[in-house]
């Protein structure tokens, strides 16, 4: 649980004073879990003033081991599990993917350049660059359209006559493949995005229905642009929100025809493969997604079709 303390006269003059006053663990400062207003505190001696809001985030649970797929030509490819932030957030810096990978390969965190990221509850391939040359090569590949990404997703919805939501949004619900091209901008909540939101930018996602389950669709998805939450926003706008994606209308519980209840433990989205600069990085489908699809009546062999 996050502790919140509004500094009063006599509470102390530094971040360390307030952390002790709040009976929080002083290691939270080193972990990057302490914020003064919206800025992360960097030292116990950092000054505070009366009226400042100090937040101390709860310590993250033990981080899972990270699988590094390869490190070559200045690029590190790894697999991010769901539940782990790519970069530091309010839970701290030490348990972010970038920090864990840096520690694993014996590099400074600052040496890893962020060239791609996945949302906390999304799993799959993430690439980091180790030098300016590799970073530029990856960015140039994005600009040239040679940075290919394949995601797989489980969406709530149906095709054909039963797909009312999709049809209402102008989507051909009987189609097996297509493109989502609605522009994406900021939503009223600054942490979220929306079709046609503030400062909306051109966005393109290619999709294909691979298989159907009970009230669900298994999708193969390829984003051509890289907007924040792009796949999640586009899928929701099309009437097919992703399972577990409460931010964009995805169900967190499904009641099946036999009365069984399926409760996704995460957002049903996984970055299965990245092809760029002459190499391919692949992340196996996590067990929780396989189990979720099977519970919805889906067949295991559909995953191979979704990933290729």
Q: How would you describe this protein?
A:
This protein has helices at residues 15-21, 27-31, 97-105, 132-144, 164-168, 230-237, 287-295, 302-307; strands spanning 3-6, 34-36, 39-40, 53-56, 67-72, 75-80, 113-114, 123-129, 148-156, 177-180, 184-186, 193-195, 198-201, 205-213, 216-223, 254-255, 261-262, 269-276, 279-282. The protein is α+β, with helices and mostly antiparallel strands and 308 residues long. Strands 5, 6, 7, 8, 9, 10, 14, 15, 18 and 19 form a ten-stranded mixed beta sheet that branches. The longest helix is centred in the middle third of the chain and has 13 residues, at 132-144. The model is unreliable at 167-171 (pLDDT under 50).
Rg of Cα set:
21 Å
What fraction of residues sit in β-strands? 25-35%
Helix content: 10-25%
Treating each run of at least 4 consecutive H or I residues as one helix, how many helices?
A: 8
